[in-house]
Amino acid sequence: MTPVASGPYAPPTPSRALTVVSADGARLHVEVHGPEDAPPVVLSHGWTCSTAFWAAQIRDLATDHRVIAYDQRGHGNSPASSACTTHALADDLEAVLARTLAREEKALIVGHSMGGMTVMAAATRPRFREHAAAVLLCSTGSSRLVARSRVVPLGAGRLRTWLTGHVLGSRAPLGPVTPVAKSVLKYATMGAGSAPHMVEACARIVHACPRAVRHAWAGVLEALDLDHGVRELHAPTAIVHGAADRLTPPVHARALVAALPHCVGLTELTGVGHMTPIEAPDLVTARIRELVTTYVTVTGTEPEDGHRATPAQIKEGA
């Protein structure tokens, strides 16, 4: 299965691509888009997705930002790994930051769904704290994901939780992208008003994820508890959430607002589901630009390897 070949969700060609090796030897596919001397934005995608998920944001931002996007282990062009843990996710993000940013270079770090959980898992890590000027969390939560999910149309309780866990953790192949498959995906992850080309783009990305990878990470999400990571996420953090999100309903966004040490706003998008960067690309991109403008500016320094870079520094008093 390949991403869409044309339109706003067709993945743009990166300025350069590289392989980053994580702490346990896992190899991660990383793409860099845009001018090398522009303020950096790091994009971390969610469960069953890939760098293709950010196509609309990359295409817009790369005109005047250095956009760094990577495939989570087992997703996209990053090979699968036996280590499927939030610790591994944090290791991977730190490895990407270490390889692509200069010493003390500041970036806006954006995480969608499991990518947001990656940020929470890395919140106490020295490398993350060194590089995070600000954070944007899109459609994510820190705990009780299966219990609070509304993917299964039943009232809250043990039966819904059990069924949801079995649906999300299924080993069954998703098969080709058919009209029926797109309808199921749209119901579970997108708002009712999502345009057909948005649903097509999402379906192609999700169906490309190997079923063994999908199953393994579903187990991690079911047992997730990163509430402590939220409390340790001291960088200015904004939240974008879909009001019609069934996978991570708005209760998660409200919990994040209450727990974050430095929350700088919640944007709730009416009629939008879980796939906010694809369903509301302009609004998500605009929020990214706002945060870069507020918290990131470009100055000069020397990276660790001696090659010249132009990092971004957090604004004083922002």
UniProtKB/TrEMBL annotation:
Check the record and name the Gene3D superfamilies matching this protein: alpha/beta hydrolase
Domain (AB hydrolase-1): give its ranges: 39-281
Q: Which GO terms describe its cellular component?
A: membrane
Q: One MF term in GO for this entry?
A: hydrolase activity
Q: Which UniProt keywords apply?
A: Hydrolase
Task: Enumerate the InterPro entries for this protein.
Answer: AB_hydrolase_1, AB_hydrolase_fold, AB_hydrolase_sf
Highest taxon, organism lineage: Bacteria
* SUPFAM superfamilies documented for this protein: alpha/beta-Hydrolases
This protein is called: Hydrolase
UniProt organism field: Streptomyces filipinensis
